[in-house]
Amino acid sequence: MGDGGGGLKSIRRWNAKEDEEALYLKIDMPGLGKEDVKVSIVENTLIIKGEKKKAIEGGDDDDDDESVRKWYSSIFDLHPNLFKVKQVKAEMKNGVLRVSIPKVKEEERKDIFKVNVQ
Question: Residues of the signal sequence (predicted)?
């Protein structure tokens, strides 16, 4: 999920909650701004990527400059009968990405056939 410049860390940097209206994701991406984050949906899969490289001076010799890379990636499958994938909204603020994924209301779903009980 996150890379603090060293090895890959397996720290969960996101959480999810939902209500009747939507699924809400909150993804911590410290050190990144909205220009460093890309959110897309490909074949009903939500793909979130963030990356930033920052040059730092390394040691006493100015020729040995290094770079620190911050990198985040998450993938979420979204069933098209449950979510309105074309209405997803994302906002990046203070190193936190918030994604709102509206739900399809039961009466709008095309995969539900209600049987008349007699």
Answer: none
Count of beta carbons in the 10 Å neighbourhood of residue 2: 19
Percent residues over pLDDT 70 in the chain: 79
CA dist 75 to 1, 45, 56, Å?
10, 7, 30
For the chain, how many residues are written?
118
Q: Is 55 helix (H, G, I), strand (E, B) or coil?
A: strand
- Strand 96-102 and strand 89-93: the pairing is antiparallel
How far is the C-alpha of 15 from the C-alpha of 76, rounded, in Å? 12
pLDDT reading at 111 higher than 90: no
Check pLDDT > 50 for residue 8. Answer: no
CATH architecture of 14-53+69-104: Sandwich (2.60)
Q: CB of 93 within 8 A of CB of 29?
A: no
Share of the chain above pLDDT 90, in %: 45
